[in-house]
Design brief:
The complex is a heterotrimer of chains A (about 220), B (about 220) and C (about 280).
Chain A (H helix, E strand, L loop, with lengths): L4 H6 L1 H33 L4 H14 L4 H11 L9 H27 L2 H10 L3 H16 L1 H14 L11 H12 L2 H35 L2
Helix pairs in contact in A: 2-5, 2-9, 4-5, 5-8, 8-10, 9-10
Chain B lengths: L3 H37 L3 H16 L2 H11 L9 H27 L2 H9 L4 H31 L11 H12 L3 H33 L2
Helix pairs in contact in B: 1-2, 1-4, 1-6, 1-7, 1-8, 2-4, 3-4, 4-6, 5-6, 6-8, 7-8
Chain C lengths: L1 H16 L6 H7 L1 E6 L2 E2 L3 E4 L2 E3 L1 H12 L3 E6 L2 H9 L5 E7 L2 H4 L2 E3 L4 E2 L2 E6 L16 E4 L3 H4 L1 H10 L7 E4 L2 H9 L5 E5 H10 L4 E7 L4 E7 L3 H16 L2 H10 L11 E2 L3 E2 L2
Parallel strand pairs in C: 1-5, 1-6, 10-11, 10-12
Antiparallel strand pairs in C: 2-3, 3-4, 6-14, 7-14, 8-14, 9-12, 9-13, 15-16
Classes of the chains: A mainly alpha (about 220), B mainly alpha (about 220), C alpha/beta (about 280).
């Protein structure tokens, strides 16, 4: 039972590049869906039942599509409809579309926790639609829902591993490339898992740090 | 769009997905409970191991974990067939998340009840069976069902080790026909419908549990 | 109590699930041999409606008849087969694995069962690629962990001779995805062994076109763990028998649509070099 860690050491640059790709893809997709998500949250809290129910159904269905299937669909099936994206664009599109539904739901959920009177008062004073979301709702939930967004980012990072199957050179792809060339599956996949662990741990640390700052902003140091 | 025979083929794959998912859930829920109990009772070495295992597995992407279990474990002497590895990997993965769910529920059981049980002379086993468990399974049910839907949603990962589930079937159809749109779209719909049914059932269950047990 | 139960269950699974390859004696004692085949490698191994078919599968059927033990077959993706044999999880990669220098470091091979020189396939009518030197800068599709990936350094050397260079390379898990991307114009050429490519083109002659050979002449054979001389002898005896009684030729004609009458009796590295 001899292990060849030397091979992993030699191929560390490939792992590093894969980790970097996993990280930036997730980060960019998260940023984009943070921009789009609140827009989708609006119809979810609309006072018109039809709008509310329709958007609820859309978000619910969107959160029931497995990420790998969505990636396959965007990458392999869309060309049949004339939309041929390269693997990086396809990745960002898939990650963003997938994540936006979750962000919308998180925003809606956090918004529901805010005192109802506040939203009514804001509306009475004239804040409606996106201004309401941007100026009143978001600043408050951003502080409160930090951990939830952090969790969602961790979910996104893990889901991004599926992109290895559409040949995106992220971390899981790198691990598979190394193991299938050198025949070192245990070493390769263990190291990749440790790197994901470190990345997710890093995200959790940032969340905890920002939570501390949020407390200080809210209640004074 | 899709021939009947092909649709039946895909449904066959869906059946495999459901079978493997159900087996993984059946193993993962009790295993999660076991892990949470080990941690709650603060068993010396095993408790720390469980905590590390839980944190490690929860940070691993499911597809990577499945590959680690199937391709990597033989190096440690544990060699499983694709289907067994799929069930094992999904079960081990969900157990880690379930352990956190059970742990939260266990912590919510009022200490007072445990002290009273001990004062009355109940052993640990009896206390668990008659006092703790009836409460924690009701408290945990919504989160556990939510985790079950997440497991099915992550199950396409098993396609990469050769298990012929719905995802791999869709791939095979696309490879033969060079028309990927029908099979991938159909597969997406089949997954979404199954998961939606589960989500609706979970919401109904949550409402009933809350109503009946005033949690 | 629960913890005891779990510990026991884990032990049972570990003991029951543990399989380790070994020599022929081990296999005979165990009573069965475990072979691994791929599910997407036409015409050597492929699966249709749940049934494994192909040249390797036909040979496996013959092997089952003459083996004094049971043979269990595992069908899995390519990336798991050779590492599985190297680690002892499987006894034989009963798959037309191309003999390469890199693989020879960790595995031993039987006598060749086919020639499997690499070539490339392009879109039919793609006039921008007329010969090997036109692959200069083109995007190529290969298989992750495949011989197609391992032949790239030779291709790069060839391109350098005509002042060109290797373009970007996409590594796919399965060739069917590489072919789809070829159709979708994400890659300009896919590299695979010439037998598999010929099968592809015979199935879709209006979509694909065969290009030139890439790299040196190479052979495909079955692979076993290093230092298993008795197992290797057993397999070689079987293969030699199929050659002499004409079965090999018949199966080649039926599945590969080409017969190899002059295969070497020993495994050879690319370029007809002897194994080290």
């Amino acid at each position: 039972m001899s292990f060849r860690w030397d091979v992993i050491w030699r191929e560390l640059p490939q792992f590093g590049l894969g980790l970097a790709n996993s990280a930036w893809l997730s980060a960019v997709a998260m940023a984009l869906s943070l921009l789009l998500g609140p827009w989708l949250a609006l119809p979810l809290v609309s006072r018109r039942p039809v709008v509310r129910r329709a958007s609820r159904a859309i978000v619910d269905v969107a959160r029931c599509v497995p990420f790998l299937l969505l990636a396959y669909f965007v990458y392999f099936a869309l060309p049949a409809l004339g939309v041929r994206l390269d693997k990086w664009t396809a990745s960002l599109v898939t990650l963003t579309v997938y994540n936006t539904a979750y962000i919308a739901e998180i925003v809606r959920g956090a918004w529901a926790q805010l005192p109802a009177g506040q939203t009514e008062a804001a509306r009475a004073v004239g804040f409606t639609g996106f201004r309401l979301v941007r100026r009143i709702v978001l600043p408050q939930i951003a502080l409160a829902a930090g951990p939830v967004f952090g969790n969602q980012l961790i979910q996104l990072i893990k889901d991004s591993a599926f992109l290895s199957i559409i040949t995106v050179p992220e971390l899981t792809y790198a691990a598979n490339a190394v193991q299938s060339f050198y025949f070192v599956p245990f070493e390769s996949f263990t190291v990749a898992t440790l790197l994901y662990w470190a990345l997710c741990g890093g995200v959790e640390q940032v969340v905890r740090w920002s939570e501390g700052r949020a407390q200080r902003i809210r209640y004074g140091a | 769009m899709l021939r009947w025979a092909t649709l039946l083929d895909l449904l066959h794959g869906a059946g495999t997905t459901l079978l493997i998912s159900l087996l993984a859930i059946a193993l993962g829920v009790p295993l999660g409970l076991g892990i949470s109990l080990v941690r709650a009772r603060r068993v010396p070495v095993l408790g720390t191991l469980c905590a590390v295992y839980s944190s490690f597995v929860r940070a691993a992407p499911v597809v990577l974990f499945v590959m680690l279990v199937f391709f990597g474990l033989p190096a440690l002497g544990l060699s499983l067939s694709p289907y067994v590895a799929a069930v094992a990997a999904l079960a081990l993965n969900t157990a880690a998340f379930n352990a956190e769910i059970w742990r939260a529920a266990i912590l919510d059981v009022p200490r007072v009840q445990l002290d009273a049980a001990r004062a009355m002379g109940m052993t640990g086993g009896v206390t668990f069976r008659r006092i703790v468990f009836p409460q924690i399974w009701r408290m945990s049910l919504p989160a556990l069902v939510s985790e079950m839907t997440l497991l099915i949603k992550a199950s396409p990962a098993i396609a990469v080790i050769g298990v012929v589930d719905l995802t791999r079937k869709a791939r095979q159809v696309a490879a033969v026909t060079y028309a990927p749109l029908p099979p991938f779209f159909t597969a997406m719909v089949l997954y979404a419908v199954t998961l939606m049914l589960l989500v609706v059932a979970a919401r109904g269950l949550e409402r009933r549990v809350r109503a009946r047990y005033a949690l | 109590m629960l913890i005891h139960a779990i510990a026991m269950a884990v032990t049972v699974v570990v003991v029951a699930g543990t399989a380790s390859a070994g020599s022929l004696e081990d296999i005979k004692k165990r009573g069965y041999m475990i072979v691994a085949t791929e599910d997407d490698y036409p015409p050597f191994e492929f699966v249709v409606d749940g049934k494994p078919l192909g040249y390797d599968h036909a040979l496996l059927a013959l092997l089952r008849k003459m083996a004094p033990f049971e043979i269990r077959q595992e069908i899995l993706p390519w990336q798991g087969i050779l590492p599985g044999v190297a680690s002892g999880k499987y006894d034989v990669a009963l798959s037309a694995a191309v003999i390469t220098d890199e693989r020879a470091k960790s595995l031993d091979f039987t006598q060749p069962i086919a020639e499997s020189t690499m070539a490339y396939v392009k879109r039919k009518g793609d006039a921008s690629i007329a010969s090997l030197k036109d692959l200069n800068g083109k995007t190529l599709g290969v298989q992750q962990g495949g011989a197609s990936f391992q032949v790239l350094p030779e291709l790069e050397a060839e391109l350098k001779k005509t002042g060109g260079k290797l373009g970007s390379v996409m590594q796919y898990g399965a060739f069917s995805e590489a072919y789809q991307d070829l159709v979708n114009r994400r890659v300009d050429a896919v590299i695979h062994n010439i037998v598999s490519l010929s099968t592809l083109i015979s199935e879709k002659p209006d979509v694909f076109e065969l290009g030139q050979r890439v790299g040196r002449k190479s052979y495909a054979a079955w692979a076993v763990q290093k230092n298993s001389p008795s197992l290797l002898t057993f397999l070689n005896e079987f293969l030699a028998q199929q050659r002499s009684n004409g079965s090999a030729r018949e199966l080649q004609a039926r599945w590969l649509k080409i017969t190899f009458d002059d295969l070497p009796k020993q495994p050879l590295l690319p370029g007809d070099r002897p194994m080290k």
